[in-house]
């Protein structure tokens, strides 16, 4: 795996042509596997003999993974993403109340208000910089970050720093010292957030988690509280940020699809689903581990191997999406058959919120700025330095009315 990331689709296509499962070399010459094919990935994500707990990671358990390994946080953070069985169900139940259909619907007016305020800011930024503004900085990042921080009771003063640190967490090209420093600082910031909410509880998820811990100390440990906050911050804004960014890039490059939506031939929700399939906001997500030697699509994955979930590859698998799987088409019959938000017991809790935020953001953006287009050619856009997150670092646009 290239630690520098880049656009994954050409490599994915080459790998998929060879099979649904591929051996990979992770940073630090750690041997792993990647599941790329849609059907194989769907089976793998829900397989009863596949675990998330780091105790199943053979190289880590046997001391062959160094401190500062850039992917170590994915394996060792305490929370839903590394829990199995009863522990996973316990942690998930504590958070799930914040993402019910009713609670998400209640957030809609807030999302709409924040969206309009950010669009005002995007317009002002463009006016101040020769008609060009970075859509990620002024719109796609602060929208989901503001919403998730509001849910968690995180003050605005922390948001920019949390975004930077979460970028460091998902980076795969940084050195050991930088990785360890970013993780320490992120834990410190989230610890300060938890301490503030413990001292002054509010109507927010962090306060609710702390209350649950105090009511029954066995329900949520201190490490699990910080791990849950870390997961919520990173997953709650990074994926939606990439989703909105990738959708805008797709629509600017496929004006016929944009006009189709504007004319009522498709819905903004269709744009969201096709973007999730065609250009998944997460390319390869670490980790799952077979608890026994597992044969998947004819390939043996040895027990204890760290396995990447290849969401971006599965989204363009021609076996499921047809020979034109590489084409962006919001009317595609298989548009909702992607796995980009997961599958099985670890399916993304925040999926309804991410879908709502993205659909509102896109509709309001192209209503306010119908002539919006990229300010630089697509090939010139710098990519994330990660094979986990899948997007560009900046998205300069001309927001024209």
UniProtKB/TrEMBL annotation:
It comes from the Bacteria. Keywords: Heme, Iron, Metal-binding, Monooxygenase, Oxidoreductase. The keyword Heme applies. InterPro entries: Cyt_P450, Cyt_P450_B, Cyt_P450_sf. GO terms for molecular function: heme binding; iron ion binding; monooxygenase activity; oxidoreductase activity, acting on paired donors, with incorporation or reduction of molecular oxygen. Belongs to the cytochrome P450 family. This is Cytochrome P450. It comes from Streptomyces marianii.
